[in-house]
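Dear H.,

Thanks for agreeing to be a second pair of eyes. The structure we're designing against is below in token form, covering all 275 positions.
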């Protein structure tokens, strides 16, 4: 019944909105992360600073600019990110204000401009189609009535990391593949099948996503702004598929681990977050 009602609403709203319908959504992200520093020789102040850095790394703001069939998703620049403590290096692969994700919902494809340790890549591939299950539950996000949808997929959780000053024990726990439940809240009142990051495919704009570790929540929506929304597909960078890019990332991270292992200087944390 809920599916029929939503499809009727979507049909009505689609008749009201022209192809030049546009909008800008601001999302805020957060990620659960536990850092085990029991074996670390860091003093209490440095541990506290490191915890704060990790917290800031995953509390970010993104902007989704969209029209009826396309969108551009990018991180807003944050000048207030704390600097690493002396002797500590944090590498977050797949993150950066220069990265741009373009999605074409009509053609079911994406193009992502991504900087990987100073080298620019253009990742092009098909959009992943999740098997969404539409639920009866609803809630308000701002002024919009949102409906719940869930989907399952295989992925990696990054919940616990361990850091040690002992050369033989320095370790970052590699996450294992497991089935992850994704919960989305979407509103048919904004009839575009789009959302933050790689999420899409629901009969309305996704305003909230939670995958157990990471949450993405809409903070602001501007529909049909006076200034025309610029949605341009990125074209610069070495063109690769998603699979090839993942292989390149893993190779680069391994090279970094090996290089620092040979140097044996300082502590480092390397976090691999998918783009």
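And this is the sequence the design step returned. I haven't edited it by hand at all.
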């Amino acid at each position: 019944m809920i599916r029929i009602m939503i499809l009727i609403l979507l049909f009505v709203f689609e008749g009201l909105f022209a192809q030049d319908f546009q909008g800008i959504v601001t999302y805020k992200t957060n990620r659960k992360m536990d850092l085990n520093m029991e074996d670390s020789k860091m003093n209490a102040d440095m541990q506290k600073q490191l915890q704060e850095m990790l917290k800031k790394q995953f509390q970010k703001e993104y902007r989704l600019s969209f029209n009826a069939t396309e969108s551009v998703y990018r991180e807003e620049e944050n000048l207030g990110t704390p600097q690493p403590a002396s002797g500590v290096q944090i590498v977050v692969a797949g993150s950066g204000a220069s990265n741009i994700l373009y999605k074409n919902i009509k053609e079911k494809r994406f193009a992502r401009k991504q900087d990987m340790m100073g080298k620019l890549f253009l990742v092009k591939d098909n959009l992943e189609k999740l098997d969404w299950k539409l639920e009866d539950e609803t809630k308000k996000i701002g002024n919009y009535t949102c409906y719940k949808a869930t989907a399952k997929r295989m992925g990696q959780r990054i919940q616990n990391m361990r850091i040690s000053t002992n050369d033989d024990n320095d370790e970052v726990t590699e996450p294992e593949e497991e089935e992850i439940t994704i919960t989305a809240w979407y509103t048919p009142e904004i009839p575009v099948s789009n959302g933050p990051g790689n999420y899409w495919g629901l009969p309305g704009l996704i305003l909230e996503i939670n995958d157990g570790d990471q949450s993405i929540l809409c903070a602001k929506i501007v529909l049909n702004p006076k200034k025309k929304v610029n949605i341009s597909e990125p074209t610069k960078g070495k063109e690769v598929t998603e699979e090839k890019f993942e292989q390149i990332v893993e190779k680069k991270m391994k090279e970094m681990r090996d290089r620092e292992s040979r140097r044996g200087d300082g502590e480092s944390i390397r976090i691999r977050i998918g783009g």
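Two observations from my side: Confidence is low (pLDDT under 50) at residues 164-172. The CA atoms of residues 82 and 244 lie 32 Å apart.

Warmly,
E.
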